Amino acid sequence: MQIQAEQPSMKGPSEWFTGDVWIDTIVRGREPSRVRVSAVHFAPGARTAWHSHALGQTLSVTEGRGLVQSRGSEIVEIRPGDLVNAPADEWHWHGGTPDHFMTHLSITEDTGESDKPETDWGIHVTDDEYRGRSR
Ligand code: MN
Predict the structure, then answer these.
(1) What is residue 134's predicted lDDT score, i.e. its pLDDT?
(2) What is the value of pTM for the model shown?
(3) What is the Å distance from ligand 1's center to 121 Cα?
(4) What is the arithmetic mean of pLDDT over 49-63?
(5) Domains, the chain, ranges and CATH?
(6) Is the pLDDT score of 8 beyond 90?
C-alpha cells in the first residue's frame, strides 16, 4: 500500500482547452493497471477542444452544470450524478455552461503503447459551436 500526499492542481493547457480549466489527478494506475482518473474543473464557458479517446471515456459529473456534444449530435446539458459514456474514437467535447462551473471525474485507460496516445486532440470548439449555432 502506498499513501500519496495531494499533488498540486494542473492548469489545463491552452492547446487542449478554451478558458480556465484545472485538473487534479486522482488515479494513475500502476502496471498492469492502466486506469486514469482525474477531476476536471471548468470555469463558466470553458471547454475542451474536440477530441476522442482511444479506449473511450466515462465522465461522472460531480458539481455544477455542464455541456457535452458528440460530433453530429445536439449539445446536451449534464448535471451532478449524470454519467456520460463516450465510445472509443468518438469525437466530442465537454465543458461548463456559459454561466456555471462544472466539475467531472474523467475515467479513461492508457493504451500502454507509447505511439498511441489515450486522447487524440483536434481543433478548438468555436464560440458559435459552443452556443449551438453551427456544427
Ligand atoms: Mn472526452
Answers:
(1) 56
(2) 0.94
(3) 10
(4) 98
(5) 10-113 (2.60.120.10)
(6) yes
**If you measure from the C-alpha of residue 59 to the centroid of ligand 1, how many angstroms do you get, rounded to a whole number?**
8
- Cell numbers given for 110: 492508457
Say which residue the cell 466530442 belongs to. 92
Which cell numbers in the block locate residue 56?
473511450
| Nearest-5° Cα angle at 60, 54 to 65 | 115
Maximum CA pair distance of the chain? 51
Q: What is the pLDDT of residues 63-79, one digit of tens each?
A: 999 999 999 999 999 99
Cβ atoms 106, 92 nearer than 8 A: no
d(CA 36, CA 24): 11
CA atoms of 125 and 92, how far apart (whole Å):
10
d(CA 23, CA 40): 5
Task: Report the separation in Å between the CA atom of 5 and the middle of ligand 1, taken as the mean of its atom positions.
Answer: 27
- In the reported structure, the alpha carbon of residue 120 is separated from the centroid of ligand 1 by a whole-number distance in angstroms of 10
**114 pLDDT exceeds 70?**
yes
- CB-based contact 42:95 (threshold 8 Å): yes
pLDDT for position 4: 85
Helix (H, G, I), strand (E, B) or coil at 127: helix
